[in-house]
Amino acid sequence: ETGVTQTPRHLVMGMTNKKSLKCEQHLGHNAMYWYKQSAKKPLELMFVYNFKEQTENNSVPSRFSPECPNSSHLFLHLHTLQPEDSALYLCASSQPGLGYEQYFGPGTRLTVT
Amino acid sequence: AQSVAQPEDQVNVAEGNPLTVKCTYSVSGNPYLFWYVQYPNRGLQFLLKYITGDNLVKGSYGFEAEFNKSQTSFHLKKPSALVSDSALYFCAVRDDNNNDMRFGAGTRLTVKP
Questions:
Q1: Closest residue of A to B88, CA-based?
Q2: Which 3 state secondary structure label does DSSP give B46?
Q3: B88 in helix, strand or coil?
Q4: Rounded to whole angstroms, how far apart are CA atoms A2 and B89?
Q5: Rounded to an integer, what distance in angstroms lies between the CA atom of residue A99 and that of residue B57?
Q6: Chain-centre distance of CA A91, in angstroms?
Q7: β-sheet bridge partners, residue A57
Q8: Which of A34, A43, A108 to mutate to test the interface with B (most CBs of B within 10 A)?
Q9: What is the pLDDT of residues B5-60, one digit of tens each?
Q10: Would the CB atoms of A42 and B32 count as touching at under 8 Å?
Q11: Strand extents, DSSP E, chain A
Q12: Chain B residues with a Cβ under 8 Å from any Cβ in chain A
């Protein structure tokens, strides 16, 4: 798991707060991903970056704002979230291409109060 | 669009017995199939993948999976289960026409001593 790190591991925030999640990968990959994992639901792909360029935005509300300053770092900026946004947020990385598996970080457990 | 189904929410097996976790998929192009495992409070870990070639794929921790094109299945198997195999297992698929990796809802495997 040390290949992809995420901070913080746990976050509690109010609906009016602004916070950021950070992801860093040490695997030399050029694609990075944000997923949302809610109880009893399939993983939801939120954003994809290939070579620092955003290539996917799966109808994610604008209160989630991604940033990818380089191929090793990925952020998810959060503001005015709703209680239903409480979930485990997972970051992953891979080489670009259909046949490459993704490597996941441990996730940030987010609770919106 | 591609999709994947894991028909069993829960699978229970006794230690030492063989285990099977089922996965079926639907794609419009050629499938790229993956299995991941998630332990409590951890991110997903890659187990194995099918891209092309032999239908029987071997992966980490003694797991294997068989690609069956006619039945559009990719079941995960292990000849002899360990208590430490207890975890949440996810099947995922991509195809030629869509770079997104679609995950199943997951199957919770419990191996009892």
A1: A40
A2: strand
A3: strand
A4: 21
A5: 14
A6: 4
A7: A47
A8: A43
A9: 999 999 999 999 999 999 999 998 889 999 999 998 888 999 999 998 899 999 99
A10: no
A11: 4-7, 10-13, 18-25, 31-37, 44-50, 53-57, 64-70, 73-79, 87-94, 103-104, 108-112
A12: 32, 34, 36, 41-46, 49, 51, 90, 94-96, 99-106
Q: Which two tokens stand for residue A74?
A: 């990925």
The DSSP bridge pattern shows strands B73-78 and B87-95 to be unpaired
Question: Which residue carries 């300053």 as its tokens?
Answer: A69
Grade residue A57 by pLDDT with cuts at 50, 70 and 90.
Answer: confident
Looking at residue B61, the DSSP 8-state letter turns out to be: G
DSSP letter for each residue of B67-84: EETTTTEEEEEESS--GG
Q: Are strands A18-25 and A4-7 parallel, antiparallel or unpaired?
A: antiparallel
Strand-pair category, A10-13 with A108-112: parallel
> Burial, B95: exposed, middle or buried (Cβ in 10 Å; 0-12, 13-18, 19+)?
buried
Strands B87-95 and B107-112 come out as antiparallel
Tokens 């991903």 — which residue?
A: A33
Sheet of strand A4-7, all strands in order from the earlier edge strand to the far edge? A4-7, A18-25, A73-79, A64-70
pLDDT tens for B64-107 read: 999 999 999 999 999 999 999 999 999 999 987 777 889 999 99
Tell me if B62 sits within 8 A of B47, measured CB to CB.
Answer: no
Structure tokens at B80: 């002899």
